Amino acid sequence: MGKTIAQKIFDAHLRDQPTPENMVLDLDVVLCHEITTPIAIMDLMEKGMDRVFDPSKIKAVIDHVTPAKDSKTAAQGKIMREWAKRNQIKDFFDIGENGVCHALFPEKGFIRPGYTVIMGDSHTCTHGAFGAFAAGVGTTDLEVGILKGVCTFRQPVSMKVEITGALQTGVSAKDVILAIIKKLTVNGATDRVIEFVGPLVDQMNMAARMTLCNMAVEAGATSGLCLPDRVTAEYLWPFIKDEYVTIDAAVEDFAKWHSDSDAEYVEVVELDVSNLVPQVTYGYKPDHVKDIADMAGTKVDQIYIGSCTNGRIEDLRDAAAILKDKKLAEGVRGIVTPATPAIYSQAMEEGIIKIFMDAGFCVLNPTCGACLGMSSGVLAEDEVCASTTNRNFNGRMGKGGMVHLMSPHSAAAAAITGTISDPRQFLA
Amino acid sequence: MKTFGGPAILLDRSDINTDEIIPAKYLTEITKTALKPHLLEDLLLDGKAFDSHSPEMEAAKVVITRANFGCGSSREHAVWAFEVNDINVVIAESFARIFRQNMFNCGILAMELSKDDIDALFAMSGDITLAVDLDKETVTASSSDGTQADLECSFSLNSYDKNLVGAGGWLAYADANY
Predict the structure, then answer these.
(1) A102: domain range?
(2) Contacts B77 to A, Cβ<8 Å
(3) Are the C-beta atoms of residues A40 and A121 closer than 8 Å to each other?
(4) How far is the C-alpha of A380 from the C-alpha of B104, rounded, in Å?
(5) Of A272, A300, A319, which residue constitutes the final position of a domain?
(6) ipTM attached to this prediction
(7) Residue B167: is its pLDDT beyond 70?
(8) Contact status, residue A117 vs residue A215, Cβ threshold 8 Å
(9) Any chain A CB within 8 A of the CB of B71?
Protein backbone atom coordinates (compact mmCIF):
# COMPACT_ATOMS: atom_id res chain seq x y z
CA MET A 1 0.00 0.00 0.00
CA GLY A 2 1.34 3.41 -0.99
CA LYS A 3 1.55 6.39 1.31
CA THR A 4 -0.05 9.80 1.36
CA ILE A 5 2.05 12.95 1.70
CA ALA A 6 0.94 13.21 5.33
CA GLN A 7 2.08 9.64 6.07
CA LYS A 8 5.43 10.31 4.41
CA ILE A 9 5.96 13.44 6.49
CA PHE A 10 4.94 11.62 9.68
CA ASP A 11 7.32 8.73 8.92
CA ALA A 12 10.19 11.12 8.29
CA HIS A 13 9.64 12.92 11.61
CA LEU A 14 8.69 10.07 13.94
CA ARG A 15 10.34 10.46 17.35
CA ASP A 16 8.16 8.02 19.25
CA GLN A 17 4.99 6.04 18.93
CA PRO A 18 3.60 5.59 22.45
CA THR A 19 0.58 3.71 21.05
CA PRO A 20 -0.09 2.46 17.52
CA GLU A 21 -2.50 5.36 17.13
CA ASN A 22 -0.33 8.21 18.45
CA MET A 23 2.80 9.55 16.81
CA VAL A 24 5.19 11.96 18.49
CA LEU A 25 6.76 14.02 15.71
CA ASP A 26 9.92 16.10 15.59
CA LEU A 27 9.08 19.64 14.58
CA ASP A 28 10.88 21.65 11.90
CA VAL A 29 9.30 24.96 12.82
CA VAL A 30 7.39 26.24 15.84
CA LEU A 31 5.57 29.48 15.08
CA CYS A 32 4.49 31.85 17.85
CA HIS A 33 2.29 34.92 18.24
CA GLU A 34 1.48 37.20 21.13
CA ILE A 35 -1.98 35.89 21.95
CA THR A 36 -1.33 32.21 22.64
CA THR A 37 2.38 32.22 23.49
CA PRO A 38 2.71 34.48 26.59
CA ILE A 39 0.90 32.06 28.91
CA ALA A 40 3.24 29.29 27.71
CA ILE A 41 6.25 31.51 28.32
CA MET A 42 5.08 32.45 31.80
CA ASP A 43 4.36 28.83 32.68
CA LEU A 44 7.85 27.79 31.51
CA MET A 45 9.37 30.60 33.56
CA GLU A 46 7.42 29.58 36.65
CA LYS A 47 8.56 25.99 36.24
CA GLY A 48 12.19 27.02 35.79
CA MET A 49 12.15 25.77 32.18
CA ASP A 50 12.53 29.04 30.32
CA ARG A 51 14.44 27.66 27.34
CA VAL A 52 13.77 26.72 23.74
CA PHE A 53 14.66 23.49 21.93
CA ASP A 54 16.33 25.32 19.03
CA PRO A 55 16.15 29.10 18.63
CA SER A 56 16.63 28.83 14.86
CA LYS A 57 13.46 26.74 14.55
CA ILE A 58 11.27 29.15 16.46
CA LYS A 59 9.72 32.07 14.58
CA ALA A 60 7.70 34.66 16.43
CA VAL A 61 5.57 37.67 15.62
CA ILE A 62 3.30 40.21 17.23
CA ASP A 63 0.34 40.34 14.85
CA HIS A 64 -3.06 39.99 16.47
CA VAL A 65 -3.19 43.37 18.17
CA THR A 66 -0.50 45.66 16.85
CA PRO A 67 0.30 48.39 17.74
CA ALA A 68 -0.84 47.47 21.25
CA LYS A 69 -4.32 48.85 21.98
CA ASP A 70 -4.15 48.86 25.78
CA SER A 71 -2.01 47.88 28.75
CA LYS A 72 -2.87 44.20 28.51
CA THR A 73 -1.89 43.85 24.86
CA ALA A 74 1.20 45.95 25.55
CA ALA A 75 2.14 43.44 28.25
CA GLN A 76 1.65 40.53 25.85
CA GLY A 77 4.01 42.20 23.38
CA LYS A 78 6.54 42.87 26.11
CA ILE A 79 6.52 39.24 27.26
CA MET A 80 7.17 38.11 23.66
CA ARG A 81 9.90 40.67 23.07
CA GLU A 82 11.82 39.83 26.24
CA TRP A 83 11.42 36.09 25.72
CA ALA A 84 12.72 36.30 22.15
CA LYS A 85 15.72 38.30 23.32
CA ARG A 86 16.50 36.03 26.27
CA ASN A 87 16.30 32.92 24.13
CA GLN A 88 18.13 34.36 21.11
CA ILE A 89 15.22 33.93 18.77
CA LYS A 90 16.52 35.79 15.76
CA ASP A 91 13.36 35.55 13.66
CA PHE A 92 11.15 37.71 15.82
CA PHE A 93 9.01 40.25 14.00
CA ASP A 94 8.03 43.29 15.99
CA ILE A 95 6.32 46.48 15.02
CA GLY A 96 7.43 47.84 11.65
CA GLU A 97 8.38 44.40 10.40
CA ASN A 98 5.36 42.48 11.60
CA GLY A 99 2.44 41.09 9.69
CA VAL A 100 -0.27 38.46 9.88
CA CYS A 101 1.59 35.28 10.82
CA HIS A 102 0.24 33.03 8.07
CA ALA A 103 1.14 35.58 5.41
CA LEU A 104 4.44 36.72 6.93
CA PHE A 105 6.12 33.39 7.69
CA PRO A 106 5.64 31.90 4.18
CA GLU A 107 6.87 35.16 2.67
CA LYS A 108 10.09 34.80 4.70
CA GLY A 109 10.65 31.32 3.25
CA PHE A 110 10.30 29.59 6.62
CA ILE A 111 7.95 26.88 5.37
CA ARG A 112 9.26 24.13 3.09
CA PRO A 113 7.80 20.97 1.57
CA GLY A 114 7.87 18.03 3.95
CA TYR A 115 8.14 20.20 7.06
CA THR A 116 6.25 19.69 10.30
CA VAL A 117 4.88 22.98 11.60
CA ILE A 118 2.80 23.90 14.65
CA MET A 119 1.50 27.17 16.00
CA GLY A 120 -0.97 28.15 18.68
CA ASP A 121 -3.35 29.28 15.99
CA SER A 122 -5.98 27.24 14.17
CA HIS A 123 -5.20 28.74 10.76
CA THR A 124 -1.72 27.23 10.81
CA CYS A 125 -3.11 24.81 8.22
CA THR A 126 -2.45 27.64 5.73
CA HIS A 127 1.17 26.49 5.48
CA GLY A 128 0.03 23.16 4.09
CA ALA A 129 -0.04 25.01 0.77
CA PHE A 130 3.72 24.33 0.64
CA GLY A 131 3.32 20.58 1.03
CA ALA A 132 4.07 20.80 4.75
CA PHE A 133 2.13 19.17 7.59
CA ALA A 134 1.07 22.27 9.46
CA ALA A 135 -1.42 22.17 12.30
CA GLY A 136 -2.94 24.56 14.76
CA VAL A 137 -2.50 23.56 18.40
CA GLY A 138 -3.31 24.86 21.86
CA THR A 139 -0.93 26.57 24.24
CA THR A 140 0.21 23.38 26.00
CA ASP A 141 1.20 21.76 22.68
CA LEU A 142 2.92 24.99 21.77
CA GLU A 143 4.72 25.08 25.12
CA VAL A 144 6.02 21.54 24.67
CA GLY A 145 6.93 22.38 21.07
CA ILE A 146 8.97 25.35 22.25
CA LEU A 147 10.68 23.34 24.98
CA LYS A 148 11.13 19.93 23.37
CA GLY A 149 10.55 20.35 19.64
CA VAL A 150 7.92 17.62 19.52
CA CYS A 151 4.17 17.33 19.15
CA THR A 152 1.82 14.34 19.19
CA PHE A 153 -0.75 13.65 16.50
CA ARG A 154 -2.94 10.68 15.74
CA GLN A 155 -2.01 8.64 12.67
CA PRO A 156 -2.96 10.80 9.72
CA VAL A 157 -6.18 9.89 7.94
CA SER A 158 -6.35 11.62 4.58
CA MET A 159 -9.18 12.66 2.34
CA LYS A 160 -8.77 14.02 -1.14
CA VAL A 161 -10.59 17.02 -2.57
CA GLU A 162 -10.16 17.01 -6.32
CA ILE A 163 -10.92 20.31 -8.00
CA THR A 164 -11.52 20.46 -11.74
CA GLY A 165 -12.76 23.03 -14.23
CA ALA A 166 -11.78 26.64 -14.82
CA LEU A 167 -12.91 29.53 -12.65
CA GLN A 168 -15.06 32.25 -14.17
CA THR A 169 -13.81 35.83 -14.01
CA GLY A 170 -14.62 37.26 -10.60
CA VAL A 171 -14.57 33.84 -8.90
CA SER A 172 -11.51 32.96 -6.85
CA ALA A 173 -9.95 30.50 -4.39
CA LYS A 174 -12.11 31.93 -1.56
CA ASP A 175 -15.27 30.98 -3.43
CA VAL A 176 -13.82 27.52 -4.04
CA ILE A 177 -13.03 26.88 -0.38
CA LEU A 178 -16.40 28.24 0.77
CA ALA A 179 -18.07 25.84 -1.68
CA ILE A 180 -15.94 22.99 -0.33
CA ILE A 181 -16.80 23.79 3.30
CA LYS A 182 -20.49 23.94 2.37
CA LYS A 183 -20.14 20.47 0.86
CA LEU A 184 -18.08 18.96 3.71
CA THR A 185 -19.83 20.81 6.58
CA VAL A 186 -18.00 22.17 9.62
CA ASN A 187 -16.94 18.74 10.83
CA GLY A 188 -16.75 16.80 7.59
CA ALA A 189 -12.96 16.71 7.80
CA THR A 190 -12.50 16.43 11.58
CA ASP A 191 -9.40 14.39 12.47
CA ARG A 192 -8.50 14.23 8.78
CA VAL A 193 -5.91 15.80 6.56
CA ILE A 194 -7.33 17.27 3.36
CA GLU A 195 -5.24 16.94 0.22
CA PHE A 196 -6.29 19.53 -2.33
CA VAL A 197 -5.49 18.18 -5.79
CA GLY A 198 -6.60 18.43 -9.40
CA PRO A 199 -5.97 20.61 -12.43
CA LEU A 200 -7.28 23.79 -10.80
CA VAL A 201 -4.95 23.43 -7.80
CA ASP A 202 -2.03 22.73 -10.16
CA GLN A 203 -2.71 26.06 -11.88
CA MET A 204 -3.16 28.05 -8.67
CA ASN A 205 -0.43 30.37 -7.45
CA MET A 206 0.78 30.09 -3.85
CA ALA A 207 -1.54 32.85 -2.64
CA ALA A 208 -4.59 30.98 -3.93
CA ARG A 209 -3.33 27.71 -2.48
CA MET A 210 -2.84 29.40 0.90
CA THR A 211 -6.42 30.72 0.77
CA LEU A 212 -7.60 27.17 0.07
CA CYS A 213 -5.56 25.52 2.84
CA ASN A 214 -6.27 28.36 5.30
CA MET A 215 -9.90 27.42 5.70
CA ALA A 216 -9.41 23.62 5.84
CA VAL A 217 -9.86 23.94 9.61
CA GLU A 218 -13.34 25.38 9.07
CA ALA A 219 -14.29 21.90 7.85
CA GLY A 220 -12.58 20.51 10.98
CA ALA A 221 -9.41 19.34 9.21
CA THR A 222 -6.15 18.89 11.10
CA SER A 223 -4.32 20.25 8.08
CA GLY A 224 -4.92 21.05 4.43
CA LEU A 225 -2.18 20.24 1.95
CA CYS A 226 -1.22 20.90 -1.63
CA LEU A 227 1.45 18.78 -3.29
CA PRO A 228 4.70 20.75 -3.73
CA ASP A 229 5.48 21.40 -7.39
CA ARG A 230 7.06 23.95 -9.74
CA VAL A 231 4.81 26.73 -8.43
CA THR A 232 6.06 25.97 -4.90
CA ALA A 233 9.68 25.81 -6.05
CA GLU A 234 9.45 29.11 -7.92
CA TYR A 235 7.93 30.85 -4.90
CA LEU A 236 10.63 29.46 -2.62
CA TRP A 237 13.50 29.90 -5.07
CA PRO A 238 15.10 32.96 -3.39
CA PHE A 239 15.38 30.89 -0.19
CA ILE A 240 16.46 27.55 -1.63
CA LYS A 241 18.76 28.56 -4.46
CA ASP A 242 21.82 27.54 -2.49
CA GLU A 243 20.36 24.11 -1.83
CA TYR A 244 19.50 23.21 -5.43
CA VAL A 245 21.39 23.66 -8.69
CA THR A 246 18.25 24.54 -10.61
CA ILE A 247 14.53 24.98 -10.04
CA ASP A 248 14.07 21.72 -11.93
CA ALA A 249 16.21 19.96 -9.33
CA ALA A 250 14.05 21.40 -6.54
CA VAL A 251 10.86 20.32 -8.31
CA GLU A 252 12.26 16.83 -8.68
CA ASP A 253 13.28 16.67 -5.04
CA PHE A 254 9.90 17.97 -3.84
CA ALA A 255 8.20 15.12 -5.71
CA LYS A 256 9.46 12.71 -3.03
CA TRP A 257 6.68 14.06 -0.82
CA HIS A 258 3.93 13.39 -3.35
CA SER A 259 1.31 10.88 -2.34
CA ASP A 260 1.72 7.49 -3.99
CA SER A 261 -0.84 6.56 -6.63
CA ASP A 262 -2.07 3.67 -4.48
CA ALA A 263 -2.22 5.64 -1.24
CA GLU A 264 -5.34 5.18 0.82
CA TYR A 265 -7.97 7.88 1.27
CA VAL A 266 -10.92 7.67 3.59
CA GLU A 267 -12.95 9.78 1.17
CA VAL A 268 -12.55 11.43 -2.22
CA VAL A 269 -14.65 14.50 -2.95
CA GLU A 270 -14.82 16.00 -6.42
CA LEU A 271 -15.70 19.57 -7.20
CA ASP A 272 -16.10 20.94 -10.72
CA VAL A 273 -15.85 24.72 -10.46
CA SER A 274 -16.80 25.50 -14.08
CA ASN A 275 -20.20 26.82 -13.02
CA LEU A 276 -19.21 28.06 -9.57
CA VAL A 277 -20.51 31.56 -8.84
CA PRO A 278 -19.27 33.85 -6.04
CA GLN A 279 -20.09 32.40 -2.62
CA VAL A 280 -21.01 34.11 0.65
CA THR A 281 -21.85 32.97 4.17
CA TYR A 282 -25.18 33.82 5.78
CA GLY A 283 -25.29 32.49 9.35
CA TYR A 284 -22.95 31.86 12.24
CA LYS A 285 -21.16 28.82 10.81
CA PRO A 286 -18.70 28.76 7.92
CA ASP A 287 -20.70 26.02 6.19
CA HIS A 288 -23.71 28.33 6.03
CA VAL A 289 -22.83 29.23 2.45
CA LYS A 290 -25.01 30.46 -0.41
CA ASP A 291 -24.58 31.67 -3.97
CA ILE A 292 -24.15 35.41 -3.80
CA ALA A 293 -27.35 36.01 -5.81
CA ASP A 294 -29.31 34.52 -2.91
CA MET A 295 -27.94 37.14 -0.54
CA ALA A 296 -27.87 40.09 -2.95
CA GLY A 297 -29.26 43.29 -1.51
CA THR A 298 -28.29 42.54 2.10
CA LYS A 299 -27.19 45.87 3.55
CA VAL A 300 -23.70 46.16 5.02
CA ASP A 301 -22.16 48.70 7.39
CA GLN A 302 -18.49 47.79 7.10
CA ILE A 303 -16.14 46.24 4.59
CA TYR A 304 -13.07 44.42 5.90
CA ILE A 305 -10.38 43.33 3.45
CA GLY A 306 -7.39 41.55 4.94
CA SER A 307 -6.46 38.57 7.17
CA CYS A 308 -4.50 35.36 6.72
CA THR A 309 -7.18 34.19 4.30
CA ASN A 310 -7.26 37.15 1.91
CA GLY A 311 -4.78 39.89 2.79
CA ARG A 312 -2.15 39.07 0.17
CA ILE A 313 -1.21 41.26 -2.79
CA GLU A 314 -3.26 39.12 -5.18
CA ASP A 315 -6.31 39.74 -2.97
CA LEU A 316 -5.73 43.48 -2.84
CA ARG A 317 -5.37 43.51 -6.64
CA ASP A 318 -8.70 41.70 -6.99
CA ALA A 319 -10.44 44.26 -4.78
CA ALA A 320 -8.69 47.23 -6.40
CA ALA A 321 -9.80 46.10 -9.87
CA ILE A 322 -13.37 46.77 -8.76
CA LEU A 323 -12.71 49.80 -6.54
CA LYS A 324 -10.70 51.78 -9.11
CA ASP A 325 -12.27 55.19 -9.65
CA LYS A 326 -15.19 54.25 -7.40
CA LYS A 327 -16.28 55.41 -3.94
CA LEU A 328 -17.58 53.59 -0.92
CA ALA A 329 -21.38 53.65 -0.85
CA GLU A 330 -22.81 56.25 1.49
CA GLY A 331 -22.77 55.18 5.10
CA VAL A 332 -20.39 52.28 4.49
CA ARG A 333 -17.01 52.11 6.25
CA GLY A 334 -14.10 50.47 4.45
CA ILE A 335 -11.08 48.95 6.16
CA VAL A 336 -8.16 47.32 4.40
CA THR A 337 -5.14 45.77 6.09
CA PRO A 338 -2.40 44.47 3.79
CA ALA A 339 -1.24 41.31 5.54
CA THR A 340 2.49 42.12 5.66
CA PRO A 341 4.79 45.14 5.22
CA ALA A 342 6.05 43.68 1.92
CA ILE A 343 2.49 43.41 0.65
CA TYR A 344 1.76 46.94 1.84
CA SER A 345 4.84 48.24 0.08
CA GLN A 346 4.03 46.36 -3.12
CA ALA A 347 0.46 47.68 -3.01
CA MET A 348 1.84 51.22 -2.75
CA GLU A 349 4.11 50.67 -5.73
CA GLU A 350 1.24 49.34 -7.79
CA GLY A 351 -1.01 52.27 -6.88
CA ILE A 352 -3.42 49.96 -5.05
CA ILE A 353 -3.21 51.82 -1.74
CA LYS A 354 -4.20 55.01 -3.56
CA ILE A 355 -7.18 53.25 -5.14
CA PHE A 356 -8.34 52.16 -1.68
CA MET A 357 -7.77 55.63 -0.21
CA ASP A 358 -9.49 57.40 -3.08
CA ALA A 359 -12.44 55.08 -2.59
CA GLY A 360 -12.58 56.21 1.04
CA PHE A 361 -11.03 53.21 2.78
CA CYS A 362 -9.06 53.40 6.00
CA VAL A 363 -5.72 51.72 5.29
CA LEU A 364 -4.46 49.91 8.39
CA ASN A 365 -1.06 48.51 9.13
CA PRO A 366 -0.72 44.74 8.83
CA THR A 367 -2.65 43.09 11.70
CA CYS A 368 -5.23 40.41 12.45
CA GLY A 369 -7.29 43.17 14.02
CA ALA A 370 -11.02 42.95 13.51
CA CYS A 371 -11.00 39.43 12.04
CA LEU A 372 -11.41 38.09 15.57
CA GLY A 373 -12.91 41.23 17.05
CA MET A 374 -9.82 42.18 19.05
CA SER A 375 -9.13 45.64 17.59
CA SER A 376 -9.17 47.87 14.53
CA GLY A 377 -12.72 47.58 13.26
CA VAL A 378 -14.86 45.81 15.88
CA LEU A 379 -18.57 45.89 15.04
CA ALA A 380 -21.32 47.40 17.17
CA GLU A 381 -24.46 45.44 17.98
CA ASP A 382 -26.57 44.70 14.87
CA GLU A 383 -23.91 45.91 12.46
CA VAL A 384 -23.06 43.88 9.37
CA CYS A 385 -19.64 43.38 7.82
CA ALA A 386 -18.73 42.10 4.36
CA SER A 387 -15.43 40.46 5.16
CA THR A 388 -12.65 38.55 3.43
CA THR A 389 -11.81 36.77 6.70
CA ASN A 390 -12.47 33.17 7.70
CA ARG A 391 -15.00 32.99 10.54
CA ASN A 392 -18.58 34.18 10.86
CA PHE A 393 -19.17 32.87 14.39
CA ASN A 394 -21.59 34.69 16.62
CA GLY A 395 -19.73 37.62 18.18
CA ARG A 396 -16.57 36.97 16.19
CA MET A 397 -16.08 40.58 15.04
CA GLY A 398 -17.85 42.10 18.02
CA LYS A 399 -20.83 41.14 20.17
CA GLY A 400 -24.07 41.21 18.22
CA GLY A 401 -22.35 41.81 14.88
CA MET A 402 -22.90 39.76 11.72
CA VAL A 403 -20.04 38.78 9.44
CA HIS A 404 -20.58 37.64 5.86
CA LEU A 405 -17.49 35.87 4.55
CA MET A 406 -16.69 36.41 0.89
CA SER A 407 -13.90 36.94 -1.61
CA PRO A 408 -11.99 40.21 -2.08
CA HIS A 409 -13.90 40.77 -5.35
CA SER A 410 -17.22 40.39 -3.56
CA ALA A 411 -16.17 42.58 -0.61
CA ALA A 412 -15.15 45.32 -3.06
CA ALA A 413 -18.49 45.02 -4.84
CA ALA A 414 -20.28 45.38 -1.49
CA ALA A 415 -18.12 48.42 -0.76
CA ILE A 416 -19.37 50.39 -3.73
CA THR A 417 -22.99 49.25 -3.64
CA GLY A 418 -23.49 49.14 0.14
CA THR A 419 -25.13 45.75 -0.20
CA ILE A 420 -23.99 42.19 -0.90
CA SER A 421 -23.55 42.21 -4.67
CA ASP A 422 -22.28 39.93 -7.41
CA PRO A 423 -18.83 41.31 -8.28
CA ARG A 424 -18.91 39.98 -11.84
CA GLN A 425 -21.07 42.91 -12.97
CA PHE A 426 -18.10 45.21 -12.24
CA LEU A 427 -15.54 43.15 -14.12
CA ALA A 428 -15.33 43.34 -17.88
CA MET B 1 -5.17 10.67 40.00
CA LYS B 2 -7.85 13.33 39.88
CA THR B 3 -11.46 12.24 40.31
CA PHE B 4 -13.97 13.37 37.76
CA GLY B 5 -17.70 14.01 37.89
CA GLY B 6 -20.39 16.02 39.61
CA PRO B 7 -23.44 18.07 38.64
CA ALA B 8 -23.92 18.42 34.90
CA ILE B 9 -25.10 21.25 32.70
CA LEU B 10 -26.64 20.40 29.34
CA LEU B 11 -25.85 22.45 26.25
CA ASP B 12 -28.26 21.26 23.59
CA ARG B 13 -26.51 22.27 20.39
CA SER B 14 -23.90 20.97 17.99
CA ASP B 15 -20.90 22.91 16.64
CA ILE B 16 -20.38 25.12 19.71
CA ASN B 17 -17.16 26.95 18.88
CA THR B 18 -14.39 28.27 21.09
CA ASP B 19 -15.29 31.90 20.32
CA GLU B 20 -18.60 31.20 22.07
CA ILE B 21 -16.84 29.46 24.95
CA ILE B 22 -14.49 32.39 25.47
CA PRO B 23 -14.69 35.45 23.17
CA ALA B 24 -11.44 36.72 21.66
CA LYS B 25 -11.62 40.02 23.52
CA TYR B 26 -10.56 38.12 26.65
CA LEU B 27 -7.49 36.62 24.99
CA THR B 28 -5.53 39.62 26.16
CA GLU B 29 -5.58 38.11 29.66
CA ILE B 30 -2.35 36.54 30.81
CA THR B 31 -3.77 34.63 33.75
CA LYS B 32 -6.21 31.75 33.51
CA THR B 33 -8.30 32.92 36.48
CA ALA B 34 -9.17 36.17 34.68
CA LEU B 35 -11.23 34.09 32.24
CA LYS B 36 -13.54 32.76 34.97
CA PRO B 37 -16.52 35.16 34.65
CA HIS B 38 -16.59 34.97 30.85
CA LEU B 39 -17.12 31.25 30.23
CA LEU B 40 -19.78 30.65 27.52
CA GLU B 41 -20.53 34.36 27.42
CA ASP B 42 -21.37 34.44 23.71
CA LEU B 43 -23.17 31.10 23.52
CA LEU B 44 -26.47 31.04 21.64
CA LEU B 45 -28.90 28.18 22.32
CA ASP B 46 -32.03 28.13 20.15
CA GLY B 47 -30.93 31.51 18.86
CA LYS B 48 -31.09 32.99 22.36
CA ALA B 49 -28.30 34.11 24.68
CA PHE B 50 -27.36 31.41 27.20
CA ASP B 51 -27.41 32.41 30.87
CA SER B 52 -23.80 31.68 31.77
CA HIS B 53 -24.27 32.71 35.40
CA SER B 54 -27.32 30.63 36.32
CA PRO B 55 -27.17 28.59 39.57
CA GLU B 56 -26.99 25.40 37.45
CA MET B 57 -24.03 26.75 35.58
CA GLU B 58 -22.30 27.90 38.77
CA ALA B 59 -22.74 24.41 40.28
CA ALA B 60 -21.71 22.44 37.19
CA LYS B 61 -18.64 20.24 37.14
CA VAL B 62 -19.55 18.44 33.93
CA VAL B 63 -20.80 19.69 30.54
CA ILE B 64 -22.92 17.45 28.33
CA THR B 65 -23.36 18.56 24.75
CA ARG B 66 -23.86 17.38 21.17
CA ALA B 67 -21.50 17.01 18.18
CA ASN B 68 -18.30 18.82 17.11
CA PHE B 69 -17.86 20.65 20.38
CA GLY B 70 -15.03 23.17 20.56
CA CYS B 71 -14.65 23.83 16.85
CA GLY B 72 -12.94 26.92 15.46
CA SER B 73 -10.10 28.75 17.13
CA SER B 74 -7.31 26.74 18.78
CA ARG B 75 -7.40 28.91 21.91
CA GLU B 76 -6.68 26.77 24.97
CA HIS B 77 -8.33 29.60 26.87
CA ALA B 78 -11.58 27.71 26.15
CA VAL B 79 -10.32 24.74 28.17
CA TRP B 80 -8.88 26.95 30.90
CA ALA B 81 -12.20 28.81 31.17
CA PHE B 82 -13.82 25.47 32.01
CA GLU B 83 -10.97 24.48 34.32
CA VAL B 84 -11.07 27.66 36.39
CA ASN B 85 -14.82 27.16 36.74
CA ASP B 86 -14.12 23.71 38.14
CA ILE B 87 -15.49 21.90 35.09
CA ASN B 88 -13.14 19.02 34.34
CA VAL B 89 -15.27 16.82 32.10
CA VAL B 90 -16.94 17.64 28.80
CA ILE B 91 -19.08 14.88 27.31
CA ALA B 92 -20.05 15.10 23.66
CA GLU B 93 -20.90 13.02 20.63
CA SER B 94 -17.71 14.31 19.06
CA PHE B 95 -15.09 17.03 19.48
CA ALA B 96 -13.05 19.27 17.25
CA ARG B 97 -9.51 17.89 17.27
CA ILE B 98 -7.67 20.83 18.84
CA PHE B 99 -10.16 21.32 21.67
CA ARG B 100 -10.12 17.60 22.48
CA GLN B 101 -6.33 17.55 22.55
CA ASN B 102 -6.21 20.71 24.66
CA MET B 103 -8.45 19.04 27.26
CA PHE B 104 -6.20 15.98 27.56
CA ASN B 105 -3.08 18.17 27.41
CA CYS B 106 -4.41 19.86 30.55
CA GLY B 107 -5.06 16.48 32.14
CA ILE B 108 -8.84 16.76 32.00
CA LEU B 109 -11.49 14.78 30.14
CA ALA B 110 -13.03 15.21 26.70
CA MET B 111 -15.28 12.15 26.66
CA GLU B 112 -17.05 10.90 23.58
CA LEU B 113 -20.29 8.96 24.01
CA SER B 114 -22.54 7.47 21.34
CA LYS B 115 -25.40 9.57 19.99
CA ASP B 116 -27.87 7.19 21.68
CA ASP B 117 -26.22 7.69 25.07
CA ILE B 118 -26.13 11.46 24.60
CA ASP B 119 -29.82 11.41 23.61
CA ALA B 120 -30.59 9.36 26.72
CA LEU B 121 -28.73 11.84 28.93
CA PHE B 122 -30.65 14.74 27.41
CA ALA B 123 -33.90 12.82 27.94
CA MET B 124 -33.34 12.46 31.70
CA SER B 125 -35.45 14.73 33.85
CA GLY B 126 -34.34 16.77 36.84
CA ASP B 127 -30.79 17.72 37.64
CA ILE B 128 -28.18 15.20 36.57
CA THR B 129 -25.09 14.23 38.47
CA LEU B 130 -22.35 12.16 36.86
CA ALA B 131 -19.80 9.80 38.33
CA VAL B 132 -16.86 8.83 36.13
CA ASP B 133 -14.93 5.61 36.64
CA LEU B 134 -11.75 5.99 34.62
CA ASP B 135 -10.53 2.41 35.19
CA LYS B 136 -13.77 0.77 34.17
CA GLU B 137 -14.37 3.45 31.52
CA THR B 138 -17.94 3.99 32.61
CA VAL B 139 -19.93 7.06 33.45
CA THR B 140 -23.07 6.84 35.60
CA ALA B 141 -25.73 9.52 35.48
CA SER B 142 -28.23 9.88 38.29
CA SER B 143 -31.18 12.21 38.33
CA SER B 144 -32.29 14.34 41.26
CA ASP B 145 -35.99 13.63 40.75
CA GLY B 146 -35.66 10.11 42.18
CA THR B 147 -38.09 8.48 39.74
CA GLN B 148 -35.52 7.28 37.24
CA ALA B 149 -32.96 4.52 37.35
CA ASP B 150 -29.34 5.55 36.98
CA LEU B 151 -28.02 5.51 33.45
CA GLU B 152 -24.66 3.84 32.93
CA CYS B 153 -22.73 4.50 29.70
CA SER B 154 -19.37 3.14 28.67
CA PHE B 155 -16.71 5.16 26.94
CA SER B 156 -13.36 4.33 25.50
CA LEU B 157 -10.33 6.53 26.06
CA ASN B 158 -7.33 6.37 23.77
CA SER B 159 -4.61 4.89 26.00
CA TYR B 160 -2.27 7.76 25.20
CA ASP B 161 -4.88 10.33 26.23
CA LYS B 162 -5.45 8.31 29.40
CA ASN B 163 -1.74 8.52 30.13
CA LEU B 164 -1.88 12.30 29.75
CA VAL B 165 -4.68 12.45 32.31
CA GLY B 166 -2.64 10.20 34.61
CA ALA B 167 0.47 12.32 34.17
CA GLY B 168 -1.46 15.53 34.83
CA GLY B 169 -1.08 16.78 31.26
CA TRP B 170 1.20 16.82 28.23
CA LEU B 171 3.93 19.06 29.62
CA ALA B 172 4.56 16.73 32.55
CA TYR B 173 4.37 13.69 30.27
CA ALA B 174 6.68 15.21 27.65
CA ASP B 175 9.15 16.42 30.26
CA ALA B 176 9.38 12.91 31.65
CA ASN B 177 9.66 11.20 28.28
CA TYR B 178 11.36 13.47 25.74
Answers:
(1) 5-153
(2) 139
(3) no
(4) 36
(5) A272
(6) 0.97
(7) yes
(8) no
(9) yes
